[in-house]
Design a protein that fits this description.
The complex is a heterodimer of chains A (297) and B (410). Chain A has 297 residues and is mainly alpha-helical. Helix content of chain A is 68%, strand content 2%. Chain A has one domain. Chain A has a two-stranded antiparallel sheet. Chain B folds into two domains: 228 residues, P-loop containing nucleotide triphosphate hydrolases (Rossmann fold); 131 residues, Coagulation Factor XIII, Chain A, domain 1 (Distorted Sandwich), CATH 2.70.50.60. Classes of the chains: A mainly alpha (297), B alpha/beta (410). β1 of chain A pairs antiparallel with β4 of chain B.
C-alpha cells in the first residue's frame, strides 16, 4: 500500500454547507477549481476530435467553407458593394461563431454532464464556463483562417485598434458567462430552453452586423440608430471588423462607424459592465436553481 | 476528539412529479394544476460523526440514506437544517462517474483527479500508485470504452482511494468488483481508518457494518430510527425491513411477470396465512443453529388429493438456500379439504447473520398446476452473537500445531 497520497483542494473548513453561497463565494469557488475548468475544457476538445483523422483541421474547414459559400453568394450572385467581402465576413463571423457555439454548448452543459452533477461536488458553474473555454479555443484556431485571408487579400489590419482585442474578448466572455450560467440552469428544469435558443440565435445572427455592415443598419434606423447598439454583440462585432477589415467606408458606401479607439472602448466597457451585472444576477439565479440539480437531471 | 461531520435538523423536501413536464408546452397545458406530491426525503435528521470514526448509514431502499449522503457531499442542499464538515472531503458516490468513455485511462485519471479537487501535480505524484493499485498498466493508454467493467471499476476506485481525504463518503461502491479486489478495497479502507480518516458510508451489508463500522445509523422513511452500535443498527435495520415487508400486498409486486408463480396460481387451494415460529416466544430472531418452525395455513375451495406444499428460503441476494416440498421430503400430505395447516419443522438453521426470505407455495405433484404462492412477506431473522462473518454457521475450530524446534530457518 502506498504511503503517498494526493491531497484534495482545501475547502473552507467549518463551513455550513447547507447554507446558500453568494455570488462572490461562487466566483471564489470557481477560482479554487480553475484546474478542473482547464481539464474540462481540454476534455471537450479531446472528445470532439477523438477518432477523427483530420482532428482539429475540421474546425478550420468550417470557416473555410463558410468563406467560400458566402463569398460566392454575396460577391457574385448578390453583387455586394463591399470590397473584399470575404475578409469583412470572416472578421464578424468568427467571433459570432464563437458566441453561438459557446451559447449552445453552455446551455446544455449541465444536462449533458448529468453523471457528474449527480455524483460529485464541484462548482457547477464550471460546466458552462468550460463550454465557453472550448469554443474559445476553436475561435483562436479558426483565426488562422482569418489571418491567412488577410495575407491573401493583402489587407493591413488596424494596428492602432489592435489593443481593443483584449477588452472585446473580455466583454464577449463576460457576456457569454452571464448567459450560459443562467441558461444552463434554466435548461435543467425546462428543456425547451435549448430549442428556443436555437431559434433566437438565428434571429440574433441577422440582427447583428455580420453579413451586412453596421452602417447600413444604423443609417436605416435614422434617429433610432443608437438603439442598434443595445444589442451587445454589435459593439463586439464591429470592434473585430474595425481591427481586421479596417475599412470605415468604401467610396461613398459607409461600412463601419468612424469612431476613435476610445469610442469603441467605451462601447465595449458598457457591454462589459452590463454583462458583469448580468453575471451576478445569473449566479444568484444559478444558486436558486442549483439545489435540486442532482434530482431533476 | 472533535466532530468531523455535524448534521443538525436536516430535512430535504422533494416534489415528486408523477409525470414531470419538461417542456413549455406541457407546462402551459398543465398550468394551474399541480401534478406532484410533496415528499420529505429526510425529516429532521441529527447525526454527529466524531473525527476518525467510521459510521455506517443503513436503511431500506428509499429510506433517505443516499439523500443524506448527497447532502453531506454538497450535491444536494437540504431544505432545512445545517451540515458542518471539518476537514477535506472526498465523496465516492459512484465509481467512475467522471470517466469519459472516449478518453484514455491516463487522461481520465487526470480528469477524475481534478474533479475530486486534485491538482495536476498531485495526480502526477500518485499516478504510478493509481495504476499499480488498479492493475491495468498495459491498458492505461487505451480508451476507457474498451475496458472491461472490472478494469473500469478498479481504475475508478484506485483514483478515489489515492486521494487523501480527512472525510470519506462512500456509497455502496464496495459492492462492485471481484472478490479479490473487494478485499483490497477493504484493506485500503482499514488503512484509512488507521490514519484517522472519518468515514461515512451507505451500505446494505450487515457483514460490512459489523466488520468495519464503529457505529450504525438507521434511517426509515427519512427519519433516524436508530443510532448505536453496529449490532443495534443491524437489528433496527431488520425491524424496518420487516415492517416494510408486511406492507407489500400479497404477491402484488411480482404478479406482473407471467412466469412468476403468483401469476400462474389458480387459487383452488389458497394460502390464508403464514407465520414464523421462533424457538422462544417473544423473540424475533434466531441464533445460529437454533430450530425454526414455519406454519402455512391454507383453505381449499374444493377437496383435492393432488397437493404438494413447498418452501424456499433465500438469502438477501436472492440465492436459494433451501428448496424442498412435502413430496421431496416424503412427508406427503393427505387430501386437503376446507381449512388446514402445514408446519415445516427446521431442526437446525445453520445460518449466520441475515434476514432470509421464505417463499411458500402450493402446487400439484407434477408441478404443472400452481395453486397459490406467497412471497415477500415472511422473513427469518438470524442474529449472530459472534464476530464471525459469512452466511453459513460451519462448526469450526482452530488450533495451533506446534512447529519442530529449530525448524524456522529454512
Amino acid at each position: 500500500m502506498s504511503a503517498r497520497t494526493a491531497t484534495p483542494a482545501p475547502t473552507a473548513p467549518n463551513l455550513d454547507i447547507a447554507r446558500k453561497r453568494g455570488p462572490w463565494r461562487r466566483v471564489a469557488d470557481v477560482w479554487v477549481y480553475r484546474e478542473l475548468l482547464l481539464n474540462l475544457t481540454r476534455k471537450e476538445l479531446k472528445v470532439k476530435y477523438k477518432n477523427s483523422v483530420l482532428g482539429f483541421l475540421w474546425s478550420l474547414l468550417n470557416p473555410l467553407l463558410y468563406l467560400v459559400v458566402y463569398y460566392v453568394v454575396f460577391q457574385y450572385f448578390l453583387k455586394t458593394s463591399i470590397p473584399v467581402f470575404a475578409v469583412f465576413l470572416l472578421a464578424g463571423l468568427l467571433p459570432w461563431t464563437f458566441f453561438s457555439n459557446a451559447l449552445g454548448a453552455g446551455t446544455t452543459s449541465i444536462v449533458g454532464n448529468s453523471s457528474l452533477v449527480g455524483k460529485v461536488w464541484f462548482p457547477r458553474e464550471i460546466l458552462p464556463l468550460a463550454a465557453i473555454g472550448a469554443a474559445m479555443v476553436h475561435f483562436l484556431l479558426q483565426s488562422v483562417v482569418l489571418i491567412g485571408a488577410l495575407f491573401v487579400f493583402g489587407i493591413n489590419p488596424a494596428w492602432g485598434y489592435m489593443p481593443l482585442l483584449v477588452p472585446a474578448l473580455l466583454a464577449l466572455v463576460l457576456f457569454l458567462a452571464a448567459l450560459t450560467v443562467a441558461l444552463s440552469a434554466a435548461n435543467v428544469y425546462l428543456r425547451d430552453t435549448q430549442h428556443l435558443l436555437e431559434l433566437l440565435v438565428m434571429a440574433w445572427f441577422w440582427l447583428s452586423p455580420i453579413v451586412y455592415p453596421y452602417r447600413q443598419a444604423y443609417d436605416q434606423l435614422g434617429r433610432w440608430g443608437s438603439l442598434y447598439l443595445l444589442n451587445p454583440m454589435v459593439s463586439i462585432l464591429i470592434t473585430f471588423q474595425r481591427i481586421f477589415y479596417n475599412k470605415v467606408s468604401a467610396g461613398p458606401i459607409p461600412i463601419l462607424p468612424d469612431g476613435s479607439v476610445w469610442w469603441y472602448l467605451r462601447n465595449l466597457a458598457i457591454v462589459g459592465m452590463a454583462s458583469t451585472v448580468l453575471l451576478v444576477g445569473a449566479l444568484v439565479l444559478f444558486g436558486r436553481l442549483e439545489d435540486d440539480f442532482a434530482e431533476e437531471i | 476528539m472533535g466532530s468531523a461531520i455535524e448534521i443538525h435538523g436536516v430535512s430535504k423536501h422533494f416534489r415528486l412529479h408523477k409525470d414531470r413536464p419538461q417542456s413549455l408546452k406541457e407546462r402551459v397545458i398543465r398550468f394551474g394544476r399541480s401534478d406532484h406530491d410533496e415528499f420529505w426525503a429526510l425529516r429532521d435528521v441529527d447525526v454527529e460523526v466524531a473525527a476518525g470514526e467510521t459510521v455506517g448509514l443503513l436503511g431500506a431502499n428509499g429510506s433517505g440514506k443516499s439523500t443524506l449522503l448527497k447532502c453531506v457531499a454538497g450535491i444536494l442542499r437540504p431544505t432545512e437544517g445545517s451540515i458542518v464538515r471539518h476537514g477535506r472531503i472526498a465523496a465516492l458516490l459512484e465509481l467512475g462517474s467522471g470517466f469519459h468513455p472516449e478518453l484514455t485511462g491516463r487522461e481520465n485519471v487526470f480528469l477524475n483527479g481534478s474533479i475530486l479537487g486534485l491538482s495536476r501535480a498531485d495526480v502526477t505524484r500518485v499516478f504510478d500508485d493509481i495504476v499499480d493499485f488498479a492493475e491495468i498498466e498495459p491498458f492505461i493508454d487505451m480508451q476507457v470504452k474498451h475496458y472491461s467493467s472490472g478494469m473500469y471499476t478498479r481504475l475508478a476506485f484506485a483514483v478515489a482511494v489515492n486521494v487523501a481525504p480527512e472525510i470519506l463518503l462512500v456509497d455502496e461502491v464496495l459492492a462492485v468488483g471481484d472478490e479479490a479486489f473487494q478485499q483490497k478495497c477493504l484493506e485500503r479502507i482499514k488503512v484509512f481508518q488507521r490514519d484517522g480518516v472519518t468515514i461515512l458510508f451507505v451500505t446494505h451489508s450487515a457483514d460490512l457494518v459489523r466488520q468495519i463500522c464503529d457505529r450504525g445509523v438507521v434511517l426509515d422513511h427519512g427519519r433516524k430510527v436508530s443510532d448505536g452500535s453496529p449490532g443495534e443498527a443491524i437489528l433496527a435495520l431488520r425491524e424496518t425491513l420487516r415492517s416494510r415487508g408486511a406492507e407489500v400486498p400479497d404477491g402484488l409486486d411480482d404478479a406482473d411477470d407471467p412466469d412468476h408463480p403468483a401469476a400462474r396460481a389458480t387459487l383452488a387451494v389458497r394460502i390464508t396465512g403464514a407465520e414464523i415460529e421462533y424457538p422462544e416466544a417473544g423473540r424475533n430472531h434466531l441464533l445460529p443453529d437454533e430450530p425454526l418452525r414455519i406454519h402455512l395455513h391454507y383453505r381449499a375451495a374444493i377437496p383435492l388429493d393432488d397437493v404438494v406444499f413447498a418452501i424456499n428460503v433465500f438469502d438477501q441476494r436472492g440465492n436459494l438456500l433451501l428448496g424442498t416440498n412435502t413430496q421431496l421430503l416424503g412427508d406427503d400430505v393427505d387430501r386437503v379439504e376446507g381449512d388446514g395447516e402445514v408446519v415445516f419443522e427446521l431442526e437446525r438453521v445453520p445460518l449466520l447473520d441475515g434476514v432470509y426470505e421464505v417463499h411458500l407455495g402450493i402446487h400439484n405433484r407434477d408441478g404443472g398446476t400452481s395453486y397459490d404462492f406467497r412471497g415477500g412477506q415472511d422473513f427469518v431473522q438470524v442474529l449472530n452473537p459472534t464476530r464471525t462473518i459469512g452466511l453459513v454457521h460451519f462448526p469450526v475450530r482452530a488450533r495451533q500445531v506446534p512447529g519442530e524446534p529449530g525448524d524456522g530457518g529454512t
